[in-house]
Amino acid sequence: MPNPPIGFQHGVTLDQAQRIATTALEEGRRLGLAPLTVVVLDAAGQMKALLKEDGCSLLRPAIAHGKAFGAMGLGFGGRELARRSQGMPGFMNAFSDLAGGAAVPVPGGVLVRDGAGAILGAVGVSGDLSDKDELAAVAGIKAAGLTPDTGDDA
Amino acid sequence: MPNPPIGFQHGVTLDQAQRIATTALEEGRRLGLAPLTVVVLDAAGQMKALLKEDGCSLLRPAIAHGKAFGAMGLGFGGRELARRSQGMPGFMNAFSDLAGGAAVPVPGGVLVRDGAGAILGAVGVSGDLSDKDELAAVAGIKAAGLTPDTGDDA
Amino acid sequence: MPNPPIGFQHGVTLDQAQRIATTALEEGRRLGLAPLTVVVLDAAGQMKALLKEDGCSLLRPAIAHGKAFGAMGLGFGGRELARRSQGMPGFMNAFSDLAGGAAVPVPGGVLVRDGAGAILGAVGVSGDLSDKDELAAVAGIKAAGLTPDTGDDA
Amino acid sequence: MPNPPIGFQHGVTLDQAQRIATTALEEGRRLGLAPLTVVVLDAAGQMKALLKEDGCSLLRPAIAHGKAFGAMGLGFGGRELARRSQGMPGFMNAFSDLAGGAAVPVPGGVLVRDGAGAILGAVGVSGDLSDKDELAAVAGIKAAGLTPDTGDDA
């Protein structure tokens, strides 16, 4: 039998992902937000870290995942996905189906870039209003020394 | 063991499909488009060729496939699908579900016809705005000596 | 707009889940295992915490989830699911389909019980051989002061 | 509207993928194999290139994809997946379901590594006997200056 699998390199590291996730939840507490779930996806769109606060409703993990996965799928932060959902509903409905329902086009899905602009993954937060969810995601990404891309021009 | 399967004849040839795909990407570069994915389906709706440029977001292959598959599914180019998505959203939402999410009703899905009008397959391109994606698909099909059907009257 | 959702009580707490997940990974490192993914599900079968070590292959998160979800689905630890997979393959194949593929009947899926035997959630670990994955899950659950149920009599 | 998506970096490049795919088909012709389909996945498990020879049966693209995706999913070449399918059928049936049917555990799914062992993607070939399909995949990977990992010790 061969050695255990090695060599998969998928962007954001576990250390970075844990820092993002724990900081996002701390920011939610600091701002007095409702209980949050935070999902960190790696560059392959697979889950790297997830934390769900006590009191979250049933599908918060799926919604947080969908925000991050939608961003990875199209290559834009959630604010751009929200604009397209308004302007091109036919396409965005099809995109949702194509993703098996796992693409949620609202703020709170944020791409994670390094200093050179390379995409290392994405963060999705759900639990409060989307604009507030996004604040938590952004705080987490910055705490890890990385650059958030919300889908708005900086 | 029986002989290998032979005799499947599914429209567009591999030579044609490769010509379509490589030309579509060249056209994208010439026009300065974002990184593109191009999918060529044969007359049976199966993938004949796919090429994804470096830098594409995660679901570009699925979106490009969906544009081409939607065109094959209904028998119209993507522009007609987009019109129906506007005018008959109930049917088009059901069509998306029926296709398991693999039908994306926007420009950039283009039927491939021979000189007599027979449908040999379809091309889907995704990466930039849909109208620009379509330019790349059309250039590819013409380079192979075949006739693009975008869903608009010529 | 209504107040944020409160009052969902789903067994394992975030503090416990984080303790379980980080200890499971530490145990994996201590034992020299391949890179692991650990998933902690709450009493509602939703994800409470997930951590994926650097180097994991693409579907480790889905496999770890499936081990834990299979245990929650039938109400037995993964060792009992593995026995049933041997003894009643027809039922277990149907169970896998019924769960949409999200039920993996092998060791490494471990129920989390409190002192009175109540099920607070389940842990799934994937990355090395199943028997070794289970060691990491059990170490995590014990570190949180809870009782692992592997599907074997103690 | 923000600029087009940039920064996705997913292992194997398009140049490498095209070299792999075209060489695999040439090797098939040289060996007199049945018509082949070759799929190249990138490090995110998404399709980078696909070519289907004229005469392939309907699901060759899906089978070739499944061989490559199974290898990416578990982190082993197809020969190791085939061994596990023999030795742990319950797990491998569940793995197939978990992958939505897109994991085919036979030779002809080959991991693509760089000189340092990092996994850049995977290749799947289908059309002839699995052992012969694998020869074509290996030839393609080598022609691109990369290292094939079939799941057997070298």
TrEMBL record, chains A, B, C, D:
Membrane spanning stretches: none
Highest taxon listed in the record's lineage: Bacteria
Pfam families tied to this protein: HbpS-like
UniProt xrefs under PANTHER family: SLR1406 PROTEIN
UniProt name for this protein: Heme-binding protein
Protein source organism: Muricoccus nepalensis
